[in-house]
Amino acid sequence: MKTKFLTLMMLLLTIVAFAKTEAMSKVTNEQLETLENQYGDMYELPVGDKIAYLREPNMVDYKRAFSAMQRGTDIDFGEAMLDALFVAGDEDIKKVDDYFMPARKILIDFFNYDDAEVTPLKDGKYKIDIGEHSCVVRKITRDDLKLAEKKNPSGKPFVTQEKLFEIVCVEKDQAFNNRGDAKIRFPLFQAIEELQNQKVAILKKRLPMPS
Predict the structure, then answer these.
(1) In the prediction, which pLDDT does 141 show?
(2) Which residues of the chain have pLDDT under 70?
(3) Which N-terminal stretch is annotated as signal sequence (predicted)?
(4) Of the four, 15, 60, 102, 142, which is 20 to 30 A from 111 by CA?
């Protein structure tokens, strides 16, 4: 009789604990509205039978995640990103491998930003348009690259790109002063990278001359 009572108590405790976990993981529309007012754009990340709610990443999040990857592995990148962006939902998506593994893979979708439009101007300058915002940069030289790299001696992610932009920028909209806006920064850095490699270089092994 005592054994049966203990079994029933354990079962009851398990049910209560499960119910509490379910209640904690469910997010109401009112809570989501509050989170949207706090963080701006929100994203749903369903994985199997669970769901997480993520805020939009900024450059600080990317820098921390890439720093974690530099010190460790791709897994560390995924952990850092999920920890930074997770604002509500099922914690199992961060903690349980069966949920975390597919979740970290899908985070790459955040990198799908609109491409910048690059227009050549006079005197070796280029106009870079990103949405409604634009800036003008001059031609990039090897000395510019050396200087930018020297200003980032510890090799922190994205710092060299920031320094290079500061060096070559001639004029810019106010939006380019916001270093945390990934929607501006990623297309900008991509455009600057492309401006460094406008000509195609191919290394071929030379065939011996026929005797």
Answers:
(1) 96
(2) 1-25
(3) 1-19
(4) 142
